[in-house]
Every structure is written in structure tokens, then in C-alpha cells.
TrEMBL record:
<keyword id="KW-0547">Nucleotide-binding</keyword>
<dbReference type="GO" id="GO:0003677">
    <property type="term" value="F:DNA binding"/>
</dbReference>
<dbReference type="GO" id="GO:0005524">
    <property type="term" value="F:ATP binding"/>
</dbReference>
<feature type="domain" description="UvrB interaction">
    <location>
        <begin position="128"/>
        <end position="217"/>
    </location>
</feature>
<dbReference type="InterPro" id="IPR004807">
    <property type="entry name" value="UvrB"/>
</dbReference>
<dbReference type="GO" id="GO:0006289">
    <property type="term" value="P:nucleotide-excision repair"/>
</dbReference>
<protein>
    <submittedName>
        <fullName>Transcription-repair coupling factor</fullName>
    </submittedName>
</protein>
<dbReference type="GO" id="GO:0009380">
    <property type="term" value="C:excinuclease repair complex"/>
</dbReference>
<keyword id="KW-0067">ATP-binding</keyword>
<dbReference type="GO" id="GO:0016887">
    <property type="term" value="F:ATP hydrolysis activity"/>
</dbReference>
<dbReference type="InterPro" id="IPR041471">
    <property type="entry name" value="UvrB_inter"/>
</dbReference>
<dbReference type="InterPro" id="IPR027417">
    <property type="entry name" value="P-loop_NTPase"/>
</dbReference>
<dbReference type="Pfam" id="PF17757">
    <property type="entry name" value="UvrB_inter"/>
</dbReference>
């Protein structure tokens, strides 16, 4: 048995000396005893991804779900937006964890404990299902896609894009790795085909698509108005000349917009709001030093950028939870 001896299975665990496949095997052994939700905290994205694969490799229970929640591949207060694949993976995880309560293992970098998130109502309320045979109002659904942050393009290539051509809709949902071509017969979904975004040729068929929001923030009229209102209230800036304000007013998503998440939501959540109270956390590293180092970096980057009047930024407590409050 690889599980550390003399442990209370209902309490959070500190497994600091298990390495490689030994850690993955111990997690599977522990899950057999505690079949609820386990949350595995690592010190980096790389460690999380490797461990996710190793847990699946060692799993004896085919029904076990291993979910990965990546952190953004940007630094605090970056002027760049996270990679779209990372955003897609995060949206997929938030949709999954909103319903998964047991028989699952969540693997994530510890830094995710500190980051504020959209609440579950936003994720669940804006997730859509398209099924073969559904009645489909093309104009209504186009409006819903745009409300969910999807971009209308000439040709679908990446997640978060769609295009309408007559009675055909091409769509690449966030959280997935496949693009879909929906063909209508009058106002009914006649076929749903999976197609290759490089060749635009059909490669398979399906009868169901799940469509999640394209971003962690809404970008419809109400959300943009909330941003503009809060920008005027929270920042001392000339809105007539400020490019951030003017971009949102013109429905343009500026680079690094994710750093202004609280300005688009009435209320935010955190990862603990998504997890059942019975979830058991397993610390693979010294989590406290990892979080305190991350907090120092957040504060240092805030101090470096807080005086830029052309790009005002939010205080750390608006975007992150204090490290001490997560432990």
C-alpha cells in the first residue's frame, strides 16, 4: 500500500514525499477508500498535466473522471490575454465541476485557489445544448452565440468561432476539440457533422453538441454597460481618450481584458464555491509557500503598474483571494 499510514481519510492530506507514479498510484488507492471528490494541488502547470496523465494511467476504475483545471498562461496584470486553448479548457472544467460531485479527481496548480471566478449561475445559465431534430431559430441562436462571447468569422478555425451561411451553421464550441457543421431543414436540425477546420471536410457525425460560454466574462449589452459604469466609478480616467473604455463601448475585446473580470460580473465566486464541502484536498507540495510566493508576485506587479493612467488596474483583492484565506 502506497497511501501514507495513520491518516484520517476524511481530512485533507499532505503527501510531500511521494513522487512519480507512486503518487498517482497512491491517489488511486485513496480514491478507492474515499470515492468522493478529491482535489490534488500541485506547484505548477507541468506537474498538474503529468500527474493527470499518470492518475488516468494507473486508474483501476474506468468510471473515474480525472479533471484538470489549468491556470492562465499569463502573469498577473499582463496586457496579454490567455491562450484560447487554456480558456477553452478552463470553461470545460467549470462546466464539468458544476455537476460532478463524486467519483472524480481534480488536478490543478495551487494558484487556482486564489483566483476569483465567474459564478456557477453564469456557467450553467449560459451553457446550451443542440440536439439532432431540435427546432432551431437561426437568428435567435446567432444572438445567443454572440451573447456568450462567440465571434462571427468568415471561416471557423478555432474554439469560440462560428459562421452562418444560409441554412448552415459552422461552430467550434469552447471546451472541445472539434468543430461542427449544423444543417437545417426549414427550422429543424437535420444533421450535425464534425468537420476538419483545415480542410473544412466532414470527418464524422454526432447527434448532440454542448456549447459553453466563450469566456469567463459576459460581453452582451448589459455586461458592457456594467463595465462602462464601473470604469467611470472606480477609475479616475478621461473616458473620452481611454482606449479600454472606448474599445468596450464599441464592443471590442481588448487584449488582457480578463484582468478586469469583476467589472463584467455583478458577483464573483471562487473554486471553493464549485466544490462540495466533503471534497478532500491532497497537497503534493508545500502549498503555503507556493501561494505566498504567488501573492508576492501579484502585489509586486500591481505596484509596478498601478500608476499607468492609460491602463488603470484593479486592486489585487478584486481579482484574487488572500493566500491565508485559502489555506
Amino acid at each position: 500500500m502506497l497511501i501514507p499510514q495513520a491518516i484520517n481519510h476524511s481530512e485533507n492530506q499532505n503527501w510531500l514525499n511521494l513522487k512519480g507514479l507512486g503518487l498517482a498510484m497512491a491517489i488511486n488507492e485513496f480514491h478507492a477508500i474515499h470515492p468522493g471528490l478529491l482535489v490534488i494541488l500541485t506547484d505548477s502547470v507541468h506537474h498538474s498535466r503529468v500527474l493527470e496523465q499518470e492518475i488516468s494511467l494507473c486508474a483501476k476504475d474506468d468510471a473515474l473522471e480525472v479533471l484538470h483545471f489549468p491556470i492562465w498562461d499569463t502573469l498577473p496584470y499582463d496586457v496579454f490575454s490567455p491562450n484560447s486553448d487554456i480558456v477553452s479548457e478552463r470553461m470545460k472544467f467549470l462546466a464539468q465541476i458544476s455537476s460532478v460531485k463524486q467519483n472524480a479527481v481534480v488536478v490543478m496548480p495551487a494558484q487556482n485557489l486564489m483566483q476569483k471566478l465567474p459564478n456557477k449561475d453564469f456557467i450553467i445559465g449560459r451553457s446550451l445544448n443542440l440536439t439532432l431534430g431540435d427546432i432551431f431559430d437561426l437568428h435567435r441562436w446567432r444572438s445567443l452565440f454572440e451573447k456568450n462571447g462567440y465571434i462571427h468569422v468568415n471561416e471557423v478555425r478555432e474554439a469560440g468561432e462560428f459562421v452562418v451561411r444560409g441554412g448552415i451553421l459552422d461552430l467550434f464550441p469552447m471546451g472541445g476539440h472539434q468543430a461542427f457543421r449544423i444543417e437545417l431543414f426549414d427550422d429543424e436540425i437535420e444533421s450535425i457533422r464534425i468537420f476538419d477546420t483545415e480542410t473544412q471536410l466532414t470527418i464524422n457525425e454526432t447527434d448532440l453538441i454542448q456549447v459553453m460560454p466563450a469566456n469567463e466574462f459576459p460581453f452582451d449589452d448589459a455586461a458592457r454597460e456594467l463595465f462602462l459604469s464601473r470604469f467611470r466609478e472606480w477609475f479616475e480616467a478621461d473616458t473620452r481618450k481611454n482606449t479600454l473604455y472606448q474599445d468596450v463601448r464599441k464592443s471590442i475585446k481588448f487584449s488582457g481584458i480578463e484582468q478586469y473580470l469583476p467589472m463584467f460580473h455583478q458577483q464573483l465566486a471562487d473554486i471553493f464555491d464549485y466544490l462540495p464541502k466533503e471534497a478532500v484536498f491532497i497537497h503534493c507540495q508545500q502549498t503555503a509557500p507556493v501561494l505566498h510566493t504567488w501573492e508576492k508576485q501579484i502585489n509586486a506587479r500591481y505596484d509596478e503598474r498601478r500608476h499607468d493612467i492609460q491602463r488603470p488596474i484593479l486592486a489585487p483583492n478584486e481579482i484574487y483571494i488572500n493566500a491565508e484565506n485559502t489555506l
